[in-house]
Specification:
By secondary structure, the chain is α+β, with helices and mostly antiparallel strands. The chain is about 55% helix and about 15% strand. The protein has a domain of about 60 residues: Up-down Bundle (Methane Monooxygenase Hydroxylase, Chain G, domain 1). β4 and β5 form a beta hairpin. It is rod-shaped. Pfam families: CorA.
Length: about 375
């Protein structure tokens, strides 16, 4: 039985031909992209299953169980199995074959985990939050800016199992880059773990750069001439999306520090130096997110101050116009009381004189308000 056929038996997948496509894709080295809504272009949770020896891809055709046993005994290669949103039934056989801990298996199937690093004997289980920037023509109060997913990685002395959740973060291009560098891939499963961590953190930096453009646009709009009219919902939406990005990035600091500094059996000391570089990039992303959060707070406070100033200006204008209207209202109110004996009531120039007095009083008030900036 071929490796693809045996993998169908191990995972319990019954879709005819689905795993034969795995073998064909492995032989043809076709790039696998899972960015579309389907769970997998292969019709199952299995994305790919490849064996590497000395950093070189081994042609498919062996029985999976025999291949795993041979790799374990010879200690000259490893198996890389890629899965996309597997069910517990699909993952059960794989967990038994590779002797994975039930708690880690449950986390890998259920997803929605925080970034973390756990050790179960000789097996290392890592969780990474993937992020991608959602393009939009104009930022609104309901725009989705950041979309998140997850990559779980099991690594042992002779295997790498990646479990991906979400519609982005395909590892196909990453696999091709690693295969183009056999010397690095020959360092074993730890090299794959480093490549995944580096790939995820680089995406963090790309997303923060894109989010910065949105923040710059909002800042420009707020401090424009009509900044008080900017919808504050845009600022709140950016803060919510930034919080989601922070939840993906910040918790990863401790796992990366462990990989970079603490001795771990399945991590080659040479690879730990690479993890220190990943840690530096992660620190940069974390600092950028913290700076963005502070900047958005300042932008929001400035916007609220602008709204308050605009409201004060409106109230001054309303008060000034009310004062102007009060003068003729008062005069006409007095002469509307219909008393028989009133000054100038029977004088032929009385009416024009009152109009002139009203006009002069209103003009004096208008010039005074205008000079003080109330109008």
């Amino acid at each position: 039985m071929s490796m693809a056929g045996n993998l169908r038996k191990v995972t319990g997948l019954g879709k005819v031909g689905g795993l034969r496509k795995v073998a064909r894709l492995a032989r043809r080295r076709v790039r696998v992209d899972l960015s579309h809504p389907a769970r997998s272009p292969l019709g199952s949770a299995v994305v790919n299953c490849v064996t590497y020896q000395d950093g070189v891809r081994v042609p498919d055709g062996r029985d999976l169980v025999e291949t795993v046993e041979r790799v374990r005994k010879s200690d000259d290669g490893f198996v890389w199995l890629g899965l996309h949103e597997p069910t517990s039934q699909e993952f059960a056989g794989i967990a038994e074959l590779f002797d994975l801990h039930p708690l880690a298996v449950e986390d890998a199937v259920e997803a929605h985990q925080r970034p973390k690093l756990e050790r179960y004997g000789d097996t290392l289980f890592a969780v990474f939050k993937t992020v991608c920037y959602v393009d939009h023509q104009e930022l609104t109060a309901t725009s989705e800016v950041v979309n998140t997913g997850e990559i779980m990685v099991f690594i042992g002395p002779s295997f790498v199992i990646t479990v991906r959740h979400g519609r982005h973060g395909s590892l196909g291009p990453l696999r091709e880059e690693l295969e183009a560098d056999p010397q690095q891939l020959a360092k074993g499963p730890a090299a794959v773990l480093h490549a995944i961590a580096d790939h995820v953190v680089d995406d963090y930096l790309n997303v923060t750069d894109a989010v910065q453009e949105d923040i710059d646009q909002v800042e420009t709009d707020v401090f424009a001439e009509n900044g008080a009219r900017v919808d504050p919902g845009r600022i709140y939406q950016l803060k919510r999306e930034l919080l989601e990005l922070k939840r993906a990035v910040a918790p990863l600091d401790r796992p990366i520090q462990e990989l970079a500094t603490r001795p771990i059996r399945v991590i080659d000391p040479e690879i730990q130096a690479y993890f220190r570089d990943v840690s530096d990039h992660l620190l940069r992303a974390t600092e950028q997110i913290a700076a963005f959060d502070e900047l958005l707070n300042s932008i929001l406070q400035a916007h609220l101050a602008q709204v308050s100033v605009a409201q004060n200006e409106d109230m001054r204008r309303i008060t000034a116009w009310a004062a102007l209207i009060a003068v003729p209202t008062m005069v006409t109110g007095v002469y509307g009381m219909n008393f028989e004996y009133m000054p100038e009531l029977h004088w032929s120039f009385g009416y024009p004189l009152v109009l002139v007095v009203i006009g002069v009083a209103c003009l004096v008030l208008y010039r005074g308000f205008k000079r003080n900036g109330w109008l």
